[in-house]
Every structure is written in structure tokens, then in C-alpha cells.
From TrEMBL:
Key words, A-Z: Membrane, Transmembrane, Transmembrane helix
Membrane spanning residue stretches: 12-32
Name of the protein in question: General secretion pathway protein GspJ
Organism of origin: Aliidongia dinghuensis
UniProt xrefs under InterPro entries: N_methyl_site (IPR012902), Pilin-like (IPR045584)
The organism's place on the tree of life at top rank: Bacteria
Amino acid sequence: MTARQSSEGTAGFTLLELLVVLAIFGLMSVLLSGGLRTIGHLVAGGTDRLDRASGLALTSNFLERVLADARPLPTGDGEDAVAFDGTANGLRFVGPPPVYLAPGAFHAERLGVEDEGGRHRLVFRAGALGDARQSRSVLLDGVGAARFAYFGADVGAGRPGWHDRWPGAWGLPALVRLRITFADGSSAPDLVVAPRPAEAGFQ
């Protein structure tokens, strides 16, 4: 074999071969890019679910603490009533200040969903009785709706059951249930908390 033939046998890629290689690289880039986007969406979705689960756990623990200390405080008007007012949209009650506030007199406390610039949040507010100032804590963000229900026997009723409304004249409910639907349409497990029994009075 001559030197000319050897040189021709070791020549570089042809134009067709280069185009095929470039097409393969382009296809691989598309596949890898799509795979990375999919992985990114999965990671983001997993992070959102973990954040939501963590928020629900913290909210449940917080409600257990504050509602378990709801007090049957007489209203002072001579009626047999307590400072507790529950509706389907939220509730107001009286109890000792939350642990993150300085110890002191009883606090008026409120829990419900608030609309802040189009975002709905489950918000807890607390302030000393007779003081207009209140602390504010966001318990859950991205809430679509929150519905409260109260279990017990209303005044003059026989068998206990769930109610959308619980006035203080009935004392304290045996259970408070919070049912949350998020803005994306997903639902959380019901949070059920038992307030302090009305007959327990002050400790």
C-alpha cells in the first residue's frame, strides 16, 4: 500500500457523519434537558409536600396547646356563659397567653382565615384582655378554606353532635375540629382538639 492510499484511509469524518453526530448530540441534549426539568418538578413538589406536612403538624400541636387551655371565664353579665364563640369560619376564646408571649393576665385569642392581598392564611391573634394590641402568627399559608365544627350537646338538646356554631352560653365544646382545604384543591386530614372541660374552671 502506498503512502497516498494510507493517508486516504485515515482521513477525518465526512460531512454526513458530522451531521449525524450533531443530530445525536442534539437529541441527547433535549432528552437530558427534559429529564432535568422533570426531576426539578419532582423535587419541588416533594419539598412543597414536606413543607405542608410540617406546617400541618406544627398547627396541630399549636392548637392542642392553646385550645386545651381555653378557660370557662364568666362573661360578667350575670349569665351562665363563657368567653368562647365558635363559628364555621373561626373562633374566639379566652386563655392564658401563648408560650411565646410573656406570662401575664388572660388573653383574648382568635383563630381564623384572613385574606392578605389575595393570599389566604390561617392566622392566630392574641392580646391581653382590654388591650387593643394583638400579636399575630401565621400558622398556615396557601389556604383555600378552613371550616370549624364543634362537638357537644347544645343547651336543651339530648344527644351530642357536631355543630357549625358554638356560643359561649353552651359552655365549652368537647371537641373542636378544623377542616382545611388548600388553594390548590388538596385537603388536609382533620385536626381535632379537645378544649379544657368547662367544669375544670381555673387551676
